[in-house]
Amino acid sequence: MTRTPLRPLARVLEARARGENPKVIERENIQKRHEDMKDRSRARAEGRLLVLGAFFFCAFAVVGVRMGMLATSEAQEPLASVPGAAIAMQRANIVDREGRILATNLDTYSVYAQPPLMIDPVAAADQLVAIFPDLEKERLVKDFTSNRKFLWIKKRISPEQKQAVHDIGDPGILFGPREMRLYPNGRLAAHVLGGAGFGREGVSAAEVIGVAGVEKKFDDYLRDPANGTQPLQLSLDLTVQAAVEQVLYGGMKIMNAKGASAVLMNAHTGEVISAASLPSFDPNDRPRPPTSGFDPSDSPLFNRYVQGVYELGSVFKIFTAAQAVQLGLVNSDTIIDTSGPMKIGRFPIGEFNGKNYGKISVADVIVHSSNRGTGRLALQIGAQRQQDFLGSLGMFEPTPFEIVEAAGGVPLKPKKWGELSTVTISYGHGLSTSPMHLAAGYAAIANGGHYVSPTILRRNGPQYGPRVMSESTARQAQKMLRKVVTDGTASFGDVPGYGVAGKTGTADKPKPRGGYYDDKVIATFATLFPAYDPKYVLIVTLDEPSIVAYGEKRRTAGWTAVPVAAELIGRIAPLLGLRPRLEPEAGAAITLTSN
């Protein structure tokens, strides 16, 4: 920038020649320079204001356009406008082992209100209450006449309800498409399926998420759009499940039980063909979890076959006998002295109803369900070896059964596994497990000595795990269990043509806050069938059964769980494709002679 001198020499000389004061020239130049500076500052300020004005114009234009879009678009609930992935509406089906639908999707609608658009809020509230009796008219009127812009009325309605709401004709009541999870078989296999609910929600879509059972366990798979045409196939058989639940419900009522459970498992593949827990619920209308009370089994949501962790009693005796045989300490014919007295420290070990069986074989220890017999076998086995064997059967960890509730079925074992615990655990007291644990343990006996993990997924062919006992030991254990049915405490459990083998167990029921009830038991019958070629394991457990038979009140498994299991096997064996077979009987001693 060129600066003009304040005292230019030519003008100064010329002014002096005319007798003028040269300082006037300097003042004029200073004034002109200040005016030039003001002009430049004003120009810069005007440019900045122009840029700022353009910026505000663009900002207000964007806001105005956005407001116009919102005013002309469909209303959205605030939570639904949170940034994130688009709401996925499709969820894969769940089918049984034969491809029959257990869970699928149904297109339906939600209904919501935009109060500013409503013509007659009071009349609309009256008609909505008539359609949905659970709504409160006063609350609706208050919401419709307030400053609210959006209000959910119902997030899921039937086609009939949609038509009734449509007939109201108020422009402020609108519908949104909605996909819901449908369980066409109602209560059937409810504890396996679990149920589904809504996650993120908008007026035009809703995210369906699993809340329990396999729906929650396999939620990622079911929600993956890539699996929309590939259903999740379970090991359940729908027809067998229906028969099991029907018979089990009847047995629970006849035996006056508080609850019941049944697990039917393929002993070679680990597939759970049926799993039932009663009382049950409808996953289409899943009840809320209880908020009061100390006994979780009071709720129909309680899954008894994985969450019902109890001392299961004498059904554990076969594990003690099998381990003793496996270690070479005894065989099924070895004589054991079961006579008393028997004490571990200051604790006496007695028999049911004070019986004394004397000297009997190992097989008869199982047949008569002798506590002292299995206790003496356990002392020969020892605490550490007993723990190792039960651990190999999966008795110390939650079962790997693929529903979320299974992780909560943690077995309870003693903190100090001493001599007393060794004896009591040998006959099923002091160690608490679930019926699903028991099914896996009996499957090892049924399949020839291999541990198999219970699974709810369809499998092809045997899925044998590590060997936990020899085939010879498993065969001897099978024969002992068969003898329990033919000669022992489970005589009501025989089913002609199918050769049932099993063991009863009756244990005092623990109180939620500690201790045991005096008059309440958990009755269990653990079976494998057909005994001549075991393929399936069935565990039936009744919670607090009690019947009157022959003039006496009966609670033991032989009177309660066993008849129910027998009825179950008779009903489901043909459905499983098992043909009845008559066991060969001993030949008659007849000699042919001539006349």
Automatic annotation (TrEMBL):
Q: List each copy of the Penicillin-binding protein transpeptidase domain by range.
A: 261-555
- Where does it mainly reside? membrane
Domain of life, per UniProt, equals Bacteria
PANTHER family assigned: PEPTIDOGLYCAN D,D-TRANSPEPTIDASE, PEPTIDOGLYCAN D,D-TRANSPEPTIDASE FTSI
- Give the transmembrane ranges: 49-69
| All residue ranges annotated as the Penicillin-binding protein dimerisation domain in the record | 89-223
Question: Any signal peptide, and if so, which residues?
Answer: none
Region called Disordered, residue ranges? 277-299
Q: Where in the cell is it found?
A: Membrane
- What are the protein's UniProt keywords? Carboxypeptidase, Hydrolase, Membrane, Protease, Transmembrane, Transmembrane helix
Known InterPro entries for this protein?
Beta-lactam/transpept (IPR050515), Beta-lactam/transpept-like (IPR012338), PBP_dimer (IPR005311), PBP_dimer_sf (IPR036138), PCN-bd_Tpept (IPR001460)
Name recorded for this polypeptide: Penicillin-binding protein 2
Entry's Pfam families?
A: PBP_dimer (PF03717), Transpeptidase (PF00905)
